[in-house]
UniProtKB/TrEMBL annotation:
Pfam families: Pyr_redox_2
Organism: Adineta ricciae
Cellular component GO terms held in the UniProt record: cytoplasm
Protein name from the UniProt record: Ferroptosis suppressor protein 1
Cofactor(s) listed in the protein's UniProt record: 6-hydroxy-FAD
Catalytic activity: phylloquinone + NADH + H(+) = phylloquinol + NAD(+); menadione + NADH + H(+) = menadiol + NAD(+); menaquinone-4 + NADH + H(+) = menaquinol-4 + NAD(+); ubiquinone-10 + NADH + H(+) = ubiquinol-10 + NAD(+)
Classification via InterPro entries: FAD/NAD-bd_sf, FAD/NAD-binding_dom
């Protein structure tokens, strides 16, 4: 057996394979790993967790990217994280790029999430390159005087708020093709009015119910900003807008290509691209395959909902393994919650009460804007202080466990733990 390997999985605990290391995948992996009843393997293309809820702060604040790009190396105690690109998901195994054999599982949690062009999310596999992207964008924002943001959803709104807070003299315009910001009729009417009022106070121009033909970034399709002075004309009212930096804050994609390449393709909702699940978050027809977070065709897509789904599935897997009765079905969140930051000093929000209680700058600052939950997620991945650095040895101490539980050679185990090669991202390719 390998030098320095651990013997704790010599009896071959059931393998829980979790595909995708976003909010849902990380939470589910932590809980199942803590139970010490399973050998948990989390697989992600990247070497780090991206706290993308706070990603837009990294476009303006120096050294903030290092805080939200958190290595996976401390996440699991009993299991491990494998850096690899998942090519296809089968009903008993997965296939990853650069490895000859399938990786089998007893339980599978599909948490592949969604992709969104940089800076909302980032596709780089190495943390150093991802940090450099944010640092370079900071310089471009500083130099720009006129900034156009196409898309008035949460990403576009919060990006505008971050920029105007740190650079109040810049001319910022948001163009949104809906009659209100966000999506109409999802929240209280007063929230839309208050949001528009706050943006106006920040001297951000908002153009509603109009659009701009989406420009393409041919040089780098995985980035959603375009440099260079350009003049655009809105499609409906023919309004002219000049900008020297343009952000396209639309076009999130569901990461389902690895599913489309296998037998679960028939379980994808053709209208949403997401996996259809039952009231226990199981992929229909498969007791031990689950889908949570953005890939699941169940309720709204927010980080806190992804975490709740992860909590439920983790508990259910324990019960199934112990052959105990199922719990009550998963309860969908019926009341909407949203906290929109407008920089670090405040924002607007709606709490998930039956009446949809609205909150303003002070409450939003306390709940989200000041830290954007960054400290919480660093702690969740066992990075307690900003000075903590990545463990170079990673999960190498799990060598014997991987060999035993996956029935592979020592060389294969070393290759898996060292991280496998990934392909260059093509336009529109999943980030997982």
């Amino acid at each position: 057996m390998g030098v320095g390997g651990s013997q704790e999985n010599i009896h071959k605990k059931p393998v829980v394979l979790i595909v995708g290391g976003g909010y849902a995948g990380v939470q589910c992996a932590k809980l199942l790993d803590k139970s010490d009843q399973f050998f948990v393997i989390l697989i992600d293309r990247k070497s780090y967790f991206l706290h993308n809820v706070a990603a837009l702060r990294a476009t303006v604040e120096e050294n903030y990217a290092q805080k939200i790009i958190i290595p996976y190396d401390r996440l699991l105690t009993n299991g491990c994280v494998i850096q690899a690109e998942v090519i296809s998901i089968l009903t008993d195994s997965i296939q990853v790029h650069g490895y000859h054999d399938p990786i089998h599982f007893n339980y599978l949690v599909i948490a592949t999430g969604s992709s969104y062009a940089f800076p909302g999310k980032v596709a780089e596999v190495a943390s150093s390159k991802a940090i450099s992207l944010y640092n370079n964008l900071q310089k471009k924002i500083k130099e720009a005087q006129q900034i156009l943001i196409i898309g008035g959803g949460p990403v576009g709104i919060e990006l505008a708020g971050e920029i105007v807070t740190d650079f109040p003299g810049k001319d910022i315009t948001i163009v949104h093709n809906q009659p209100t910001l966000l999506q109409p009729k999802q929240f209280q009417d007063k929230l839309y009015a208050r949001l528009h009022e706050n943006l106006s106070k920040l001297h951000i121009t908002v153009i509603l119910n109009d659009g701009i033909q989406i420009p393409t970034n041919e040089d780098n399709p995985n980035m959603n900003y375009i440099e260079g002075r350009k003049t655009y004309v809105t499609e409906k009212n023919q309004r002219s807008i000049t900008a020297d930096l343009t952000f396209v804050c639309v076009g999130a994609r569901v990461n389902n290509k690895s599913i489309s390449n296998g037998p679960l393709q028939s379980k994808i909702n053709p209208h949403t691209g997401r996996l259809m699940v039952n009231n226990y978050l199981q992929v229909d027809g498969y007791e031990k395959i689950f889908a949570i977070g953005d890939i699941s065709d169940k309720e709204a897509k927010f980080a806190y909902i992804a975490a709740d789904q992860a909590n439920y599935v983790a508990k259910l897997i324990v019960l199934i393994e112990k052959q105990k009765p199922y719990p009550k079905p998963y309860q969908i969140h019926t009341n909407s919650l949203i906290l929109l930051t407008l920089g670090r000093n405040g924002g607007v929000g709606q709490l998930p009460t039956s009446s949809g209680t609205l909150i303003g700058n002070i409450a939003v600052k306390c709940l989200k804007s000041k830290d954007i939950f960054t400290s919480r997620y660093r702690a969740a991945l066992n990075y307690q202080s900003e000075s903590d650095t990545e463990t170079k040895t990673g999960y190498s101490h799990k060598l014997d466990s991987i060999q035993s539980i996956l029935s592979v050679t020592e060389k294969d185990a070393r290759d898996l733990l060292a991280g496998l090669s990934t392909r260059e991202l093509a336009a529109g390719q999943d980030f997982i």
